[in-house]
Amino acid sequence: MVLEARGMTVVYGGTAVMDRVSLTLPDGPFGLGLIGESGSGKTTVARCLLGLVAPTSGTVRFRVVDLGGTRWPRPYRRAVQIVVQDTEGALDPRMRVGRAIGEVLRAHRLVPRGTEPERVAELLADVGLAAEAAARFPHQLSGGRRQRVAIARALAVRPRFLVLDEPTSALDTTVRVRILDLLRRLRTEHRLSCLLISHDLAVVEQLCPRVLVPHHGRVVEEGDLADMLHRPRRPATRTLRDAVPRLTSVPPP
Predict the structure, then answer these.
(1) φ and ψ at 131, to 5 degrees?
(2) What is the mean pLDDT of the chain?
């Protein structure tokens, strides 16, 4: 088991925006989907797991060690990384790609002095980019290539699990398929556990055999995705399932 959260609750102004949420992420490769409409609480769950928000109550354990407190240890901060939807906001527009990835390597002292460019090139190759991308600024890359850079930067610290926060929702359909294929390959090769946050069941289906459905801050349904698609028990889950586009045959004229 990589991560276990039990009874996580976050209270803002006397209101519980996340109420007694529990989840488990086993060793990878594995994918857990956190699906829900806007305001359901899924982003608050991610922020708690990333250490950006301290739970008001509940526990978070990383490899059976209770993290506790508000300043989580450096090994944990290396073990968990996030890939976000807005790559324009996540990548410094004044920093070339190679420097952005190299900054992570330097901060965590992951490579010997002088070998940083080689490691940056390896990371870019791992996500399907040529080494020349290191010399580019983010605005010189397409949305799909920027997302690949963000993934490469997340992989630089050799994480144990990734939080994927709507990683494909800003991309067009063709690029979305390629990024999902890339994430699926990397999850297997690097033995990653992934928490995929999305409102799109069609995306979640590509990476996650198991899902949680939060609604107004509480988990209202949990189980295997295949079963949930065929037999959703709660209205919130049925709404998400029914929003997935379906192809229907068109009768001949």
Answers:
(1) -60, -25
(2) 87
